[in-house]
Amino acid sequence: MNGKDLACSLATCIVSLTASAYEKPQVCTLHTNWTFCQVGDTLWSEAKVPGTIHQDLLNHNRIPNPFYGMNEEAVQWVENEDWMYRTSFVVNEHQLSRDAAVLEMDGLDTYADVYLNGALILHADNMFVGHKIQVKPVLRKGVNHLLVRFRSAVKEVLPQLATNGFEYPASNDHSPWRTSVYTRKAPYSYGWDWGIRLATCGIWRPVRLVFSDVARIEDYYVCQKSVSANRAEVDNRLEINNVTSRTVTALLKVNYHYSANDTKEISKRIELRPGENTVSLPASIDNPHLWMPNGWGEPSLYKFTASVTVDGAEIARQEREVGLRTIRVVMDDDEYGKSFYFVVNGRPMFAKGANFIPDDALLPNVTPQRYKRIFEDVKAANMNMLRVWGGGIYEDDNFYSEADRNGILIWQDFMFACSTYPHDPLFIKRVETEAEYNIKRLRGHASLAMWCGNNEIYEGMRYWGWKRKYTAETFAEMERGYDVLFRQLLPKMVERLDSSRFYMHSSPYEANWGRPDSWKIADSHNWGTWHGRKPFESFDSSIPRFMSEYGFQAFPEMKTIRTFAEEKDFELESPVMNAHQKADIGNALIKQTMGLYYKVPARFEDMVYVGLVLQGHGMRHGMEAHRRNRPYCMGSLFWQLNDSWPVVSWSAIDYYGNWKALMYQSKRAFAPILINAIREDNNLCVYLISDELHDRDDVSITVELMDFDGKTHSRWTCNGRLTANSSLLFMKKPVGEWLGKQDAASSLLHLTLKAKNGATLADNVYYFAYPKDQKLPEASIETSVKRRGDEIEMTLKTDRLARDIFIEVPVQGVRFTDNFFDLLPGQRKTIVITSTEGLSLKDFTFRLHQLGGVR
Ligand code: BMA
């Protein structure tokens, strides 16, 4: 705290002292005056808190930018060193006189000892937990000294590695010594098949000092007992810590507020014994505004405020945003195998979305604005679910609040992925603490839909050859460990702390690799189109009950590649490109699959463009297949939404926030109403898929056969009823009948769905041939650009068919209302381009790509 903060806090004290003996808590953020030093060194340099050692070293030019070129290698020494962070702050007499002073550290990464004024106040050993330390006995009037000493997470566990007797699988750990599994630290930070290795350390989440009187609210949970359209019954559950040594009578008030004229307050007198007290205050709401997923209505949120008053003074208060809803996961044996779907507010919901990985290799760089933007993107792409994957982190509170506000359900993994793990008593204890901390932190969120024990460990144990790799005894030990962690400890914790939420031991529930039969059972991961090198059409026959992972890679666009590579590196297999491709079959497989569908271009830049187009169309094929097959299949979460650094990966949005073609294709394939033509044997079938909650009578489908110059050769129409929440086959005839005498290489079907009032509900294009076999013209596209405030409005018009138009704008993070789209002959389209920095028309430059222009 600086002098100014101190003066302010004294002023507050004087004012409130006149009113009552007690005051509201005073929260002092401790994010200033930090310096850091390598242990063994004497040089202390300015540090950023919350932060990481890599970011601090980078800020002082003591390491090169790890994201650039092949610098990753040059920064690896950092993980083997120990690092110290220290700060000092001033505490005044009044603050010292208060009943409690608690140092709250929301996250230390990872092995850290914390000292305050010469006293050791904390041993931390788990990145995923926050700490609250009573520091009143060691605080001093005047200057106080706080120091955090981090030990290398890699070196810390070397003795465990040395005595374990076998090495855990952990194949994504990029070090020859696979230490990651021993430490409760984000698995991806040790490297992944899309991830840079930055096994960093630091004070990665906020730090604050809180002074308070009488009692603190340690936890406030609005537990939803029952919710229906008529009535919601909730229980306000609080853990209140009376820090005095006497029993205190207090008044607990809960206010719940939806809007200015929809607000209610209830209260009760409570006796707080010294120490922890559990208090409950039930409440009910008639005709509640229900929280609805994206696409189904408003994600309505109530504001709940709990406050504790003693002797007329409010001594504690906490607020929660509460979405009232029911979410049920139905995983029942049925005639096919085992179902897996989400029922939200009583209606089965087809889940549309993606897997989320940590948004940065250096986590404190993910600001609330970045989370906000991610959820704007997710919502815009018509998604209603994200899976927080088990190799990353339990995300920041902001993440879940944004999910609540945008109607996005969250599938939450516990942080275990792709390897077996230890299960010794200390490890189990750490996991127990971590589970308790995070379940309690997240359970109040409306968006939180389920818990899952881990990512792909069960599958790994059964089908990734681990059984052969280890002795029978070791493998049996691993199986025991699996049961202890994922079938006993974690479900027990969920049952105890969050009993209404669904828990599943692993994703996929059954092992899928090489076992299509398992796709009849619960959720599945389909890696056929990547690790199995199958064509995208395999999505049509590999239909699971719920697809929780499937993916195909693409390079990010050139402006992102240019942030880490030079002209000389622009080659598929150059050392720099390979350093930014962590999946072993990566770049070669992209080229191989491209050859199935497209002419593989010679120029690197064209290859990047066609690769983006390939990923978008290929993945869209999967999304459409999954949706078409509802209700047998009830979910489609692709791998992966985002990137943690600039890299070639399966992502739909690159590190700088640029949408790849895949994200635009998701927006189309996940639209509430989808019209979809698909070849089934010799027939071409037209399906209508609706995720809406109401039927639409008298819709009409028009199918036009058109050539690439815009001439219409045939037209069919069909009227019918679009049934809510369903997929229905509407038209079916042999391919030859649709095509007539026209040439498959230069014809398309334009499908349009119209409502009774003539409004277009959906449209789509079907091509009879792969792009490589098509006679694609190079269309003349006319463009006109207008400035509208901070936005650019661009209108495009084409003479002949222009496929997969990509408007390339060399500004990072710029947003387009649409991109990577087809323009039919004669069609005109206006899109709006915005950027956070504000685009100026003068500086605005762009380049147009179209598939027909690639040689
Ligand atoms: C799945 C994920 C990740 C991985 C991805 C691509 O298995 O769970 O572990 O990054 O495949 O291989």
Class computed from helices, strands and strand pairing? alpha+beta
Put simply, the count of helices is 19
Q: How is the CATH topology of the largest domain named?
A: TIM Barrel
Listed once per kind, the bound small molecules are: beta-D-mannopyranose
Based on the coordinates given, report the CATH architecture of the largest domain. Answer: Alpha-Beta Barrel
Indicate the radius of gyration in whole angstroms.
29 Å
Largest sheet: 6 strands, antiparallel
For the biggest β-sheet, the strand order reads: 3-2-4-9-6-7
Overall geometry: globular
Instruction: Report low-confidence residues grouped into runs of 5 or more.
Output: 1-18
Query: What is the strand content?
Result: 25-35%
Binned, the helix content reads: 10-25%
Count of DSSP E strands? Answer: 44
Mean pLDDT reading? 96
CATH superfamily of the largest domain: Glycosidases
Per CATH, the class of the largest domain reads Alpha Beta
How many separate domains?
Answer: 5
Tell me the distance between the termini: 63 Å
Task: Give a structural overview.
With 855 residues, the protein is an alpha+beta fold. It is built from 19 helices and 44 strands. Strands 3-2-4-9-6-7 form a six-stranded antiparallel beta sheet. A six-stranded parallel beta sheet has the order 27-26-25-24-23-30. α7 runs parallel beside α8 (397-406) and α9 packs parallel to α12 (472-497). The structure holds beta-D-mannopyranose. Beta-D-mannopyranose binds next to loops. Beta-D-mannopyranose (BMA) is lined by residues 192-194, 391, 417-418, 455-456, 549, 639.
